[in-house]
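Sequence and structure are kept together here, with a separate record for every protein. An example record follows, reproduced without changes.
>
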Amino acid sequence: MDHSGHGMNMDLPPFTLGRGLQFSADPIFLIGCVLAVLLYGYAVVRLRRRGDAWPVNRIVFFVIGVLSIALVMCTKLNDYGMVMFSVHMVQHMVISMLSPILLLLGAPVTLALRALPVASRGSKGPRELLLMLLHSRYMKVITHPVFTIPLFIASLYGLYFTPLFDFLMGSTAGHLAMMVHFLGVGLVFFWPIMGIDPGPHRPGYLLRMLELFAGMPFHAFFGIALMMASQPMVEVYKNPSASLGIDALSDQNAAGGIAWAFSEIPSVLVLLALVFQWYRSDQRIAKRSDRAADRDGDQELHAYNAYLASLQARGQ
């Protein structure tokens, strides 16, 4: 197998956190992370120069989201992930269930729509093309729960419990494609649920919570299946290098525990974000109602009081 640039070609020493966090960048992800931060920063500067504000908390969320991707793809965690199932599972969980949540809380699409210039009449620029994509039938399909929930589940069972995983792990390109897929699945799953950005599918808050919890039990069961297995289930991790000093089955059980734990952590984060967004939405509605009442002398309240008076008069 050709794993140039990854741990499969080398006898790595036993894993420690210090060794795992040493710099060892995947060039594609390194370039992508740097570009993401630079473009986001440039868009914020454009807004600020014309006098528009952009919340600092969104900047913080986005930058931490990008850094979380760099943490698992631009360090030796990426090398160890090629030879240790447990480390690979950390990569998978972070890049599919933590990074997308943080990136979405940064509202990058909303920022782009506000920062990109409006094209001249009769022409289409980047902003108009982005709007067309957001309103396209394609986006309606890939953000609908009928698509996102099965995709989320299939990315676990259809990958790890079939020969597809071993095939992808057989090359650096396959491993890279798998990690990009994990990130994409996380983004399309969480975007309709808790994303701030506009999208074609955005149900009420209760339905969003139902969408969130529809996928999590399958995720937890996947982790339990790995924890309870009596033999290694993934070919590529069946014979770890002696230099690692690990047992394949124990490492797989640890991977299952990591997958199970990560089914809980993002659920809590997203639930907190949803409750906060719901509260903010109610506050905005209440303020709009108060402003409308101030403008019309609270006609709605007077009309309701008159309605109650008429009911009372009928009952006498």
User: Anything to note?
Assistant: The chain is about 70% helix and 0% strand. Confidence is low (pLDDT under 50) at residues 1-9. The CA atoms of residues 146 and 211 lie 10 Å apart.
